[in-house]
Amino acid sequence: MKSVRVQRIIGVAGAAAVLVTAAACGSSGPGKSSGSSSGGTGGSSGSGGAGGATSGVTLQVLIGSSGDAETNAVVAAGNAWAAKTGNKVVVTPAKDLTQQLTQSLAGGTPPDVFYVDASKFQGLVKGNALADVGEKITDSADMYPNLQKAFTENGKYYCVPKDFSTLALEINTDLWTKAGLKDSDVPTTWDQLETVAKKLTGNGVTGLVMSDTLDRIGAFMRQAGGSVVSADGKTVTADSPQNLAALQYLQKLAKEGALKFPKQVDTGWGGEALGKGKAAMTIEGNWIVGGLQKDYPNVHYKVVPLPAGPAGNATLSFTNCWGVAQKSSHQAAAVDFINYLTTVDQQMGFAKAFGVMPSRQAAKTQFTTQFPDQAAFVTGADNAFGPVGFPGFDAVQKDFDSKIQGLSDGSSDPKSMLSSLQKNATDALSNN
């Protein structure tokens, strides 16, 4: 299983720092990833002003694959598009996408097409590594608005959302029933979440187990009306009453024993805790579906939206885009390939092959009809917020994450945590 944190490193392209990622959105595994050759209309209608030929070229495509299913699906899609257009596609599943992409960008020989994580997007733009191709595919506006926003900088929509996931609440239904709870008890507010988490705790089971990272508890900050940075990304807003309310709520659950973090129950992530029966509930994205199917196929569970906080419903989203290298001499063909990969048929092919959620709104009904148990993840798209993405935030988050587990034993103080986050994030943002 991959780490629950998106991997981040700093590379150099020209004179600017470039941040890239090894994790694919919706990744199988606790962190996040990502077909088939079926479907897709292809064509060059979405190529716009991208340069280079659209046929007779070889595209180099670098992906951060979650495993054979994802690799085989992308290869199959590449072969299908190549047969249709007279091109060739070479798909490389990186052993370490962060390192390989960083080195190729720094060396001036990047792949034509590659995965870009939302949290690394701003660094790549700053490094002038991405071509501006987001609006050059057919019906580009059909992508979920928050996903488009994740890949827009300075008014330019750079790259096309590949797929996405949101956080939801997963419930072990056997433990739920054993505790005497019914469907009507599914929590829709913080108070209700606390009530059921306490009732589910006991006899070696913790009511709620979730990963100790901002990539999880950040959802509670949003539900309280807080954020780490302002909507325009120019001001750090971490040290706020709203964020304090979120941390104090989680600290209360932890002190009551109704909330624990994976290490406290000898597991690596929330999905493992749920699968082993050590957690009655967890909070993860739809990558948990593949993880539980693979490792704990006999566990019965259901997925419901995250409970609303004082400010209403909110969740976090994780997404990747198909990026095109600014230095690629095959940009027109690259856009045409991405146009093919992001048709509804092809996105549904990927969903069937390795469990990702289509980034096109036009695929929503088809996806939820075929995968009704995952409807809560798609519903979350309407109130989802992306990650903090400015260069240098990685180290800031690492410091903050290291203090989260201390909420349970009192070794970490919420006010001090937010004060430190405010200062460190402000210092990092000022360097951009």
How do you describe this structure in short?
This protein has helices spanning 68-85, 97-107, 121-126, 145-150, 173-178, 190-200, 214-223, 241-255, 270-275, 287-295, 331-341, 344-354, 364-370, 375-379, 393-404, 414-430; strands at residues 8-13, 16-21, 58-63, 88-93, 113-117, 152-153, 156-157, 160-166, 168-172, 206-209, 259-260, 279-284, 301-304, 315-324, 357-358, 384-385. The chain has 432 residues and is of the alpha/beta class.
Would you mind describing this structure in some detail?
Strands 3, 4, 5, 8, 14, 15 and 16 form a seven-stranded mixed sheet that branches. It contains 16 helices and 16 strands. It has two domains: 8-166 and 318-385, Periplasmic binding protein-like II (D-Maltodextrin-Binding Protein, domain 2), CATH 3.40.190; 168-316 and 390-430, Periplasmic binding protein-like II (D-Maltodextrin-Binding Protein, domain 2). It is globular, with a radius of gyration of 21 Å. The longest helix has 18 residues, at 68-85. With 432 residues, it is of the alpha/beta class.
